[in-house]
TrEMBL record, chains A, B:
<dbReference type="InterPro" id="IPR041424">
    <property type="entry name" value="CinA_KH"/>
</dbReference>
<dbReference type="InterPro" id="IPR001453">
    <property type="entry name" value="MoaB/Mog_dom"/>
</dbReference>
<dbReference type="InterPro" id="IPR036653">
    <property type="entry name" value="CinA-like_C"/>
</dbReference>
<dbReference type="InterPro" id="IPR008135">
    <property type="entry name" value="Competence-induced_CinA"/>
</dbReference>
<protein>
    <recommendedName>
        <fullName>CinA-like protein</fullName>
    </recommendedName>
</protein>
<dbReference type="InterPro" id="IPR036425">
    <property type="entry name" value="MoaB/Mog-like_dom_sf"/>
</dbReference>
<dbReference type="Pfam" id="PF18146">
    <property type="entry name" value="CinA_KH"/>
</dbReference>
<dbReference type="InterPro" id="IPR050101">
    <property type="entry name" value="CinA"/>
</dbReference>
<dbReference type="Pfam" id="PF00994">
    <property type="entry name" value="MoCF_biosynth"/>
</dbReference>
<dbReference type="InterPro" id="IPR008136">
    <property type="entry name" value="CinA_C"/>
</dbReference>
<feature type="domain" description="MoaB/Mog">
    <location>
        <begin position="4"/>
        <end position="172"/>
    </location>
</feature>
<dbReference type="Pfam" id="PF02464">
    <property type="entry name" value="CinA"/>
</dbReference>
<comment type="similarity">
    <text>Belongs to the CinA family.</text>
</comment>
């Protein structure tokens, strides 16, 4: 079966926000065997939305619409649903009750307005109660095509999708199994990988698709297929992925979703009961932010220092001023001293240090923009490397992060 | 004139990546007066791409296509262009030369393969040379509709758009002026704002659109319009925005694009020649990462410590263990001590401290998930506040960040 996602909002079409809802919905639909045929973003314009509904209806069995459900005047999704389904808005008592409960929970001591807009819903709609916001979701059908309307606020959309929409889709539609598996590799380019795996790739059957997803310093390789027989499907992809992992064993770090490179690092450090601290200069907290973004980091991650100003490398981290003087602040020597002293300061088994010039200007150093030194201190010593990652600030930081995780995973996998 | 953006790639439709290219392209097109009618994401499937081209041609004067230009087998955009334009692929010497230069620049000492796929381009295409990657862009026309193909790698796409595509669009099309202005507000909800500005909103003329863009702890209010007369257009929106800023003066921090809350903070601190350091516990580097993501942070931002483990708050920051014992690690008292000691450690005028339980588990504290204390130390003392931001890790961190910036801007605006 096929689905289409329609996201409504001028803010998307003028580039004011990035639409993250579609990716989330697509992933979740895929997980239950629903293939997304197309994602369409349209304006807050009734005529345009109706046209998108008609187009989607031609090829999709399920249309998921997000956005345009707010309490303010620019939100027109509900009225458009009425037009499309030849329906009218009526007041729904259960929505009023739900909003009263919400207000109570958040200790908002105010009465609902007399003509409370959020309680007006199309009379034919099945209401999907929103426990985290005032706008309810809706489920409506026409000519065997299901249309679902969800709020655009990601948090509310996700809860409604998980609690109300996915269970209804599973009941309502027969779906095949869809299976993707993605191998994560660090340190080799797309073309070089393609050359190395050419024989393997040529041996893939028609119904299994390979995709290359390159980004700064890493390439993801995805196999995808679908079938009604789940075990045959998984066996067919898993066995081919095993061969691929073998061919690329020096650059592959594991499968995506099952693992991220931070998961791999966490797993190894937890097994060894070892700990990590960071001293980030040029990356300015971008590494620690990725490590602490996921729950559970506190089992191995102890703490971090960001000595943005050069003097702090001496004052707090104890890097000898003479070392900075002699080799410059962006040097292997300074990076190694930062890493070793970071281990001591935080009493950790490992420490990662970065120092570099992310750009666009040289700052207080003498080194070229894009120069980055990475050092890793471990119980057995210290390793380090110097790079030039080009002259784009964002790319310098991203490449440094990917290289840090690649080097660190290699380091802790050694022993 | 109207444009459509078509992004090609199964990775988008299975939710493996978030499409950020469309937002960038939309914003840049708007800037030069091109309105984006629709954004469509389609699969790596020739039939589907052709269908999307035909549909786009019905309402757009310009169609910008990204993705599917890589050197590997899953990339089919060029062949699809040939089918759509009834054309064939030929080898282009200038592309070969460009790639040789690129290899030389990156000291890649390898010969190009005999049938070098990236040099094959539709014979009728105007080649847009990609100075940052091997896949060239293409510009083709049919029935007065321009089709542009760009690589999906954001960095390469952005350079080609800026250097090759936008200048050609400006030459080729007559465009009106489009103008958006967005007011940033912190600390009040969407409905409450709508009530306060109802009279002002009702007085807006037909051709000026107001949009509300709420997210955790902040709401953006955007006015949009277009006209052939730029000065009338800008005056008409600017004057209304000034009135709105007045009405919302207690919660508005400035206009987006002209300023972010971090820009405002940087501006004030630079003017006063004052400095900032951070002690982030529960936010784990998310605040420092936002501050250092933009160039120029080093003019006011000195450094940061992330004492993730409780002991470090005592060991490195000097928070008395007795204070943690008496009031718990997530307390106003501990947050204030962290902030005051952070100022001393980094020798800064201001320090911001966060301590809290982001969840999903309570960690080593006794406090409820979602409890967060924020303290700001300044030359004149310390302010602090305790919050509960709910039980979703991501939202707790985001709400804390927004609240930190809101409180800190208020603090430095005082004197």
């Amino acid at each position: 079966m096929l689905a289409e996602i329609i996201t409504i909002g001028d803010e998307i079409l003028i580039g004011q926000i990035i639409d993250t809802n579609s990716a989330y919905i697509s992933k979740e639909l895929n997980r239950i065997g629903v293939k997304v045929y197309q994602i369409t973003s349209v304006q807050d314009d009734q005529h345009h939305i109706l046209q998108a509904f008609e187009d989607a209806k031609k090829h999709a069995d399920l249309v998921i619409v997000t956005g345009g459900l707010g309490p303010t005047k620019d939100d027109i999704t509900k009225q458009t649903f009425c037009d499309f389904f030849n329906d009218t808005l009526i007041e729904d008592q259960s929505v009023i009750e739900n909003v009263k409960q919400l207000f109570k929970k958040h200790q908002l001591n105010k009465p609902l307005p007399a003509n409370f807009q959020q309680a007006m819903v199309p009379s034919k709609a099945t209401i999907l109660m929103n426990l985290y916001g005032t706008a309810p979701g809706m489920w409506m059908e026409r000519d065997d095509v299901v249309f679902v309307s969800l709020p655009g606020v990601p948090y509310e959309m996700k809860h409604l999708l998980q609690d109300e929409v996915l269970p209804r889709i599973i009941m309502r539609f027969n779906r095949p199994h869809i299976y993707h598996k993605t191998l994560l590799t660090y340190g080799l380019g797309e073309s070089a990988i393609a050359e190395r795996i050419a024989d393997w790739e040529n041996g893939l059957p028609e119904n299994i698709k390979l995709a290359y997803l390159p980004s700064l310093g890493k390439v993801r390789l995805r196999l995808s297929s679908s079938s009604n027989d789940e075990s045959v499907l998984m066996e067919s992809i898993d066995s081919r992925m095993e061969v691929l992992s073998e061919i690329l064993s020096d650059i592959a770090i594991g499968y995506e979703d099952e693992t991220s490179i931070i998961d791999r690092i966490a797993h190894i450090l937890n097994q060894k009961k070892q700990t990590l601290s960071l001293a980030e200069s040029c990356t300015g907290g971008a590494i620690v932010q990725q490590i602490t973004a996921e729950a559970g980091a506190s089992s191995f991650f102890i703490g971090s220092i960001i000595p943005y100003k050069t003097e702090l490398k001496t004052k707090i981290l104890g890097v000898p001023a003479s070392l900075i003087e002699e080799f410059s602040v962006v040097s292997i020597q300074v990076a190694e001293s930062m890493a070793i002293n970071c281990c001591k300061l935080f009493s950790t088994d490992y420490a990662i240090a970065t120092t570099g010039i992310a750009g666009p200007t040289k700052g207080d150093g003498v080194d070229e923009v894009g120069t980055v030194c990475i050092a890793i201190a471990s119980p057995t010593g210290v390793v380090s490397e110097k790079f030039n990652f080009g002259n784009d600030r964002y790319r310098v930081i991203e490449k440094t992060i990917n290289k840090v995780f690649e080097m660190f995973l290699k380091e802790i996998s050694k022993n």
